[in-house]
Predict the 3D structure of the following.
Amino acid sequence: MGDLFTPSHILLVIVVALLLFGPSKLPELGRSFGKMLKEFKDGAKGLYAQEEGTAKPLTGSVQEQASSGKES
């Protein structure tokens, strides 16, 4: 299987989009897609920032925790 996003594939997608939606509707679709993508990225950043605040630092080495688990 070759590359998925070759220039000919991208051109074909653009032509099909023009045929389906028409030239007057494409700018509106592009704007709404851009807004959706921005909101998704902002939401993902919020999740990562929230996770970083709740992460606890390791207090012991993995070796110590493994040996204490075997003893009990």
Residues 16 and 22 are 10 Å apart (CA to CA). The helical segments are 7-21, 26-54, 62-71. The first helix runs from residue 7 to 21.
